[in-house]
């Protein structure tokens, strides 16, 4: 078992001195809006954890809000495991301690996958939506009062190796465990607030001007799924947006403008089907093409993207309809994958047997005298002067 898979077998330190005695700093691993994250390892057990501290002193309030939010959330398999917090952490506190995600966030995991594969496996996308459906159902329907995460995106969804996976047969887990993280912006659904998460993963612009509902989280999962599968931001491309503004007349933003908050918050979303042909992706959507995904996956993905909130899938509906369907689907895909592996192994072994037989036949043919060669040799001997005379009736006669 790798150090990252170790569970916490003893109480976690809750003051900075005892934490630094028990754990040693390994390296920085990430930086977000509110905080920076580093990797620490227990000097005795080898347990590895993630330590999150404020990015700047004025961000301390955000991490205090995250601690308060985390205390409200009962443990759940698809929400990142919060181990402890240290209020008086130096130089800037508080510090939050989490289990470490071996594969980082979804964006990093995608880059890792594409270092070995042509595209994100479809099975992985089914598992992503399955895990996120369960996580959202927990926040929306199983905490007494419904809560909204409010800032779901690939960078706030972590990737862990599945239970029992050791990497012996597969270099990468195609069915990892996905967990929601960074719930500092989580609010009760009853709170009268507007969407205040990352703009690119927010719901349609008119919906952002109304009171936020759990439907915003479902939209964000659809947008994150698009980004995970296709590798693009789920908004209209900057080049296309500039062209639209040129046609409208008036001020035309530059590419630098579109990186500012003022413009980021108003660039409209872009729904992109997952089963588009590669030609359509390249020439119509103007994105780097990837082999299309199945219509079956596409229809569930589309249910997350309904602009009409009343028609958009809810987390409760996803758990009731999608989760059992996806479980069967993944089981079927695994069975087909195993059957294909067995078939490929059989064909490979068959080819090896044929090749061995061919080599044996070739070797035997080289060792066995060939009949034409023997006859040619005999004829040459019969034609030697003083040795033979004309062959009569197929039989040679010796000279006197």
Automatic annotation (TrEMBL):
Single GO MF descriptor: protein serine/threonine kinase activity
Superkingdom of source: Eukaryota
Pfam family, one: Pkinase
The Protein kinase domain, residue ranges: 23-334
PROSITE patterns: PROTEIN_KINASE_DOM
Coiled-coil residues: none
InterPro entries, A to Z: Kinase-like_dom_sf, Prot_kinase_dom
Protein's UniProt name: Protein kinase domain-containing protein
Organism, as annotated: Paraphaeosphaeria minitans
Lineage: Eukaryota, Fungi, Dikarya, Ascomycota, Pezizomycotina
